[in-house]
Specification:
By secondary structure, the protein is mostly helical. It contains 10 helices and no strands. The chain has one domain.
């Protein structure tokens, strides 16, 4: 397989993966819909940081440990499931408290302010604690590296294609979610959003925990 053919083929595969709604989509939409543009882009950059790490480690052969070692996979799976369940449960708890305090970050709905670092940490942890991302790269990335090509350089190049597609799609998601920010100034609307997002995130965590 020539490098050009490999690039186009890999672009098609990860492009379809990027467009498939999932945990990343839920996190980006929820953060951006609350008017926190900077924090939403922090989430986006965190997710892509995780993707770069997975791609680099796969190119180095490190992530093959996930498929070779049952213990390594299980440890990462339970860590990821626990993190997602905690995140989702916290969102749900905050919306169902009998006497909730004022909803935070009202100023951010108007200014788009928010700490990029907070979003980046959340996005990075969510991506790196998902063993399925690592397994996906172990199973797919080597198939698109042409014989004789530098393994690390080509693997990182293909990963950067995935990151570029993710950034473009995330920009569209952030723009769409910003259109909802006026409606979400209402506390009831924000609670509804957090209940939906919390349920989705906890559901991903539960599925990860029960997949066996």
């Amino acid at each position: 397989m020539a490098l050009g053919t490999a690039l186009w083929s890999f672009t098609l595969v990860v492009g379809l993966l990027t467009l498939t709604p999932g945990l990343d989509t839920a996190l980006i939409l929820r953060t951006a819909a609350l008017g926190r543009r900077r924090q939403a882009w922090g989430v986006v950059l965190g997710i892509q940081t995780g993707t770069l790490i997975w791609g680099t480690l796969t190119s180095l052969g490190v992530t093959a440990l996930l498929t070779a070692s049952h213990l390594a996979y299980e440890a990462l799976r339970w860590a990821g499931a626990g993190y997602l369940l905690w995140m989702g449960a916290r969102m749900l708890y905050d919306t169902w408290r009998r006497t909730p305090g004022p909803l935070p970050d009202d100023a951010e709905l108007l200014t788009g302010r928010g700490r990029v670092g907070d979003g980046w940490r959340r996005g990075t942890l969510t991506n790196l604690l998902n063993p399925k991302v690592g397994v996906f790269y172990v199973a797919v990335l080597p198939q698109f590296i042409p014989a004789g090509a530098p393994h690390l350089t080509t693997g990182v190049l293909l990963t950067c294609v995935h990151i570029l597609l993710g950034l473009v799609w995330s920009a569209a998601l952030v723009g769409f979610a910003q259109a909802l920010s006026g409606w979400l100034r209402r506390p009831s609307a924000r609670r509804t959003l957090d209940r939906v997002t919390g349920t989705v995130i906890a559901g991903f965590g539960l599925r990860l925990a029960l997949e066996g």
